[in-house]
Backbone:
């Protein structure tokens, strides 16, 4: 039908041009020819583009180019692009793999990882997600207390995720078990007291944020132990209305004395806070931490020993950004009563039911607006020699064998 109309139109145009030529209107005819030729070209070009565009958008497997900065040598390509080879028409299983990736190893550098982790969905998920707690272990090497944690996690798969940041020089795999095996993330050297320690913490948070079902994020070390069984700790964190980051104004030389005037006006002395390195945060705060480009460069440049970034960075920025979301306390107990730059370390002879029960219920704090004696969920620093005693006490104290 379209071709017929074009043919008739062409014949009428030819007759009209001949008539105008005979009548001396050649310039007008020439102008009309040029104009109509261009119109025809645009018409057919539009049909061509429209046909190809329709085929592209209706295709079940459209091609989205991946960012060229990512290496293709990784055995499992990272979710580096926003679509991550996963369209809305994909099956739920593929979408779940993207929302909760099983493999924690990837080829992203820190800049790419933080960018990817800072993404926040603007719509509800198309299916229900079980909220999980991300247990992030910042370790020098092995996990000597792993058998205790094995008992802690056993039987609660689907309610937790594990991430291990260890020194790059440590090449041995964690214990071959469903709990810790293949849970080590790409890591970089982290030196105590230096900004690289905060880099490691942000790296752990960013990797854990890639799993959209992770709702709470707890930082632990290889010397940490749980003080309660898994259901108790899980419910405590998931149901909490606040995060747990130690933050207070310390007027002493080890507090305000570490403030650098070069941080002003981004960070003033009245903003300056101190707190424990061992934090627990809600997902909203975790995203704020990994996407921070305002305060992090200031701290990295002006907070070096004797200013210790891991004691001041989070305590300060969370007080500035969202003080209402923080309880200003840590849920990891550490003993500083003996003084010195490092907390007390506990060995086999220190372990007893009385000692651990005091840590479990020997303090007073606020939880969801009410008073509570359950203030600490974890404790450190426990020497490897304590493992045997802890395993012996665990069934009665924690109820591990009765979960």
Residues:
């Amino acid at each position: 039908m379209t071709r017929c109309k074009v043919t008739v139109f062409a014949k009428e145009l030819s007759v009209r041009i001949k008539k105008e030529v005979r009548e001396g209107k050649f310039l007008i005819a020439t102008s009309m020819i040029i104009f109509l030729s261009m119109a025809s070209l645009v018409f057919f070009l539009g049909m061509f583009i429209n046909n190809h565009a329709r085929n592209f958008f209706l295709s079940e497997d459209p091609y989205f180019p991946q960012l060229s900065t990512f290496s293709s040598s990784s055995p499992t390509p990272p979710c580096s692009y926003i679509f991550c080879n996963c369209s809305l028409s994909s099956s739920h299983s593929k979408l779940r793999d993207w929302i909760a990736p099983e493999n924690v190893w990837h080829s992203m550098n820190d800049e790419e990882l933080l960018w990817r982790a800072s993404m926040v969905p603007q719509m509800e998920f198309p299916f229900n997600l079980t909220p999980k707690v991300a247990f992030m272990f910042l370790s020098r090497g092995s996990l000597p207390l792993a058998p205790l944690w094995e008992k802690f996690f056993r039987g609660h798969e689907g309610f937790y995720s594990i991430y291990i940041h260890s020194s790059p020089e440590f090449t041995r795999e964690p214990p071959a078990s469903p709990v810790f095996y293949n849970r080590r993330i790409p890591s970089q050297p982290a030196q105590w007291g230096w900004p690289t320690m905060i880099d490691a913490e942000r790296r752990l948070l960013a990797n854990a944020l890639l799993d959209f079902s992770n709702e709470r994020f707890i930082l632990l070390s290889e010397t940490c132990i749980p003080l309660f069984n898994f259901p108790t700790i899980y419910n405590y964190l998931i149901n909490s209305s606040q995060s747990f980051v130690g933050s207070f104004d310390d007027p002493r030389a080890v507090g305000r004395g570490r403030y650098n005037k070069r941080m002003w006006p981004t960070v003033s002395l009245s903003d300056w806070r101190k707190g424990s390195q061992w934090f627990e945060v809600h997902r909203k705060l975790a995203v704020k931490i990994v996407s921070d480009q305002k305060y992090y460069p200031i701290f990295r440049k002006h907070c070096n020993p004797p200013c210790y970034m891991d004691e001041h960075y989070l305590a300060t920025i969370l007080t500035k950004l969202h003080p209402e979301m923080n309880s200003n306390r840590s849920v990891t107990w550490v003993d500083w009563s003996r003084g010195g730059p490092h907390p007390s370390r506990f060995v086999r002879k220190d372990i007893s039911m009385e000692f651990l029960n005091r840590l479990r219920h020997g303090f007073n704090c606020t939880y969801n607006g009410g008073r509570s004696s359950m203030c600490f969920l974890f404790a450190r620093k426990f020497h490897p020699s304590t493992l045997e005693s802890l395993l012996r006490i665990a069934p009665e104290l924690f109820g591990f064998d009765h979960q």
Notes: The CA atoms of residues 227 and 378 lie 5 Å apart. The longest helix spans residues 26-58.
